[in-house]
Amino acid sequence: MFKIPKKVSKKILVPITAALFISSAVPAFAIFDENSSVGASFDWSVKGSTAGSYQGDAYTPVGYWNDIKFDSSQIQKINIDYHETFEIKNVNDQIGHTGWYASNIPNVSFDRDDDNKNGLSEEIEATETEPYENLRANTNYYFHTSWYDSNKRSGSGKFRFTQQRSAYGPDSDFNWEYQAVHYDVIHEKNYSYGASALLDNINNDFASNTADASELIENNNKTLLKNKSVDVSEVSEISEDNQVENELRVTKNINNLEDLNEYKKLQGELVKELKKENVEVLITLNGALSEQEVKQLANKYGIEISDFEIKAIDNNTSEWVTIGGVPTENGDLYHDEYFNNVTNGLDLSVEGYTMIEGTIKDFNLNDLEKIQSDDKVFLADIMGEYAKQVYGKDVDVINGDIAQKIDKLK
User: Fold this and answer.
1) Residue 132 contacts residue 79 (beta carbons within 8 Å)
2) Spatial separation of the C-alpha atoms in residues 309 and 356, rounded to whole Å
3) What's in the keyword line of the UniProt record (predicted)?
């Protein structure tokens, strides 16, 4: 069985009431480019990418999106104005997502959505959380993820691969707030799975243009929180049945170690404002840890892990590859079959766990300080919980960890 190796490895914050504010400004709705037909439709669209599916284990279809590449003129615009989102959706929505994925897209937050609340996550998104100079020109990025039929039946369906772009900037159109301005369905692919699945036809494009353009149109309503190191914005999604779902996006404005330390100190101010017994915490680990080290850390502080990320290195490009997953029913983090499904065809060297997310029950003020002072922890981030408290109700929060950012700034 695969085992992840162990790796050895100043400013004074203004008061929280001054550092963060709630804004009631509501910018105009804006979708500047949208196309729900299959294929790259605009000069900003991904060109030449490949997508499809393969059967992992007997009841596990895997969707892959490879060769996601931009030329220098596209990248110049992206890295100034835009946050890219790459989405893989199981259109049929009849089986559950495994919680596992693999991607070399840098500094992204991965989020699974269950838009129709049927208990199955029909889509997973990789959204850039860094505002500037993130993607590189003429670089092949990829994104793999998997679903699983717990009833162990044969089945088939369709994956949809969509590129979205949210603008974020100071000009009159965006006003330092998110605006979804671009939406393009790049691929649609058949998939099948089960003991009798026929794999030779699963990679053909659908000819029909049946995608609903309103499916993932996003509209920023307002900025909830803002200070030097972070912005939190509300973004609305309009689902296929015209139901509006809101989510919050956390953008960390971290460009140097000073910014990083300021964001770290901010957590100590936020915790004083929390009024919840059960608190979700996003922990960026101090290096790449073994599974045993991660479990010991979680047990020490009573963290019920819901998600985690593993760092690997692509042996062909030396790039950081993020592999994400969820614990098994018996509490193990690593799942051999799910790991192999999403990394099939990739030549990787695995280094260890870099992030865990989970819930601390009966949370108190001292818990965060204890976790933050642990030498295995770089950052214990409660911005997501604080943002939901300010928002006033439970909502998805897109809040990426900063493991790759730390690696670059150290």
Assistant:
1) yes
2) 7
3) Signal
> Given the structure tokens 């369906």, which residue do they identify?
157
Spatial distance between the Cα atoms of 290 and 352, rounded to a whole number of angstroms:
6
Q: What is the DSSP letter of 278?
A: S
How many whole angstroms separate alpha carbon 68 and alpha carbon 163? Answer: 10
Q: Report residues of the chain scoring pLDDT below 70.
A: 1-32, 80-81, 130-133, 167-180, 195-225, 235-245
Distance from C-alpha of 241 to C-alpha of 311, rounded to nearest angstrom: 38
| Residues with Cβ within 8 Å of residue 210, at least 6 apart in sequence | none
Distance CA 149, CA 151 (A): 5
In three-state secondary structure terms, 338 is: helix
Which H or E element spans position 9?
A: none
Residue 64, classified by CB atoms within 10 Å of its CB into exposed (0-12), middle (13-18) or buried (19+), is buried
User: What distances in angstroms separate CA 331 from CA 92, 208, 269, 308, one per listed residue?
Assistant: 30, 43, 32, 12
The torsion of the CA quartet 404, 127, 323, 87, rounded to 10 degrees, works out to -160
List residues bridging with 358 in a β-sheet: 281, 305
Q: Are 343 and 144 spatial neighbours (Cβ–Cβ below 8 Å)?
A: yes
Looking at residue 129, its pLDDT comes to 75
Q: How many separate helices (H) and strands (E) can be counted in the chain? A: 8, 19
Amino acid letter for position 168: Y
Task: Report the pLDDT value the prediction gives residue 104, as an integer from 0 to 100.
Answer: 96
User: Nearest CA to 85 among 124, 53, 51, 49?
Assistant: 124
H helices of 322-364, where?
A: 336-343
What are 81-122's pLDDT values in tens digits?
678 889 999 998 899 999 999 999 998 889 998 877 888 889
What is the SS3 assignment for 347? coil
Q: Which of 253, 277, 263 is closest to 372 using CA atoms?
A: 263
Q: What is the DSSP string of 241-294?
A: TS-EEEEEEEEE---SHHHHHHHHHHHHHHTTT---SSEEEEEEEEEEE-HHHH
- For the chain, what is the largest distance between any 2 Cα atoms, rounded to a whole number of angstroms? 64
Instruction: For residue range 111-145, list pLDDT tens digits in order.
Output: 998 877 888 889 999 988 765 557 889 999 999 99
Q: Report how far residue 312's alpha carbon sits from residue 332's, in angstroms, rounded to the nearest whole number.
A: 19
